[in-house]
Amino acid sequence: MMAKIQSEQLKQLKDIFDRFDMDQDGSLTQLELAALLRSLGLKPTGDQLHAMLANMDANGNGAIEFDELVGAILPDLNEQVLINQDQLLEVFRSFDRDGNGYITAAELAGQMAKMGQPLTYRELSDMMQEADTNGDGVISFNEFANILGRSGVEYLGLTVS
């Protein structure tokens, strides 16, 4: 299976895997896996995610290693998914003005104003509160990817089957 996918796609997938492996232990927890899948445009429910983790976890250690991920999502992986991930990272970087890997409230407000969408203090507070799921006061790439994925689905009125 791995031989079929170009090394460039595999490298991109490895980069994505590494970005979501928050503790850098070489494996993804259920939460890390959920964030990664959402960033790729896949929206599994809690039950689907639990079943997916059980099916993907070939060695039974409760986490997903890179080779397990590749084996599981390779059939659904296509060029468009990787392009979307790159575009998402590009958009994230446009908001992350100082390049530190996080979007602050000031960066969010500044970029939204530049895009012709100035925010009130209330709107800014609400956006930060919704996006900042771990409560550290900034938006990480994972949090950004989750919000953008969820917003797109809500905006288009799509439901997950």
UniProtKB/TrEMBL annotation:
Gene3D superfamilies linked to this entry: EF-hand
InterPro entries according to UniProt: CALM/Myosin/TropC-like, EF-hand-dom_pair, EF_Hand_1_Ca_BS, EF_hand_dom
Keywords: Calcium, Metal-binding, Methylation, Repeat
Annotated protein name in UniProt: EF-hand domain-containing protein
GO CC, one annotated term: myosin II complex
Pfam families, sorted: EF-hand_7
Keyword Calcium: yes
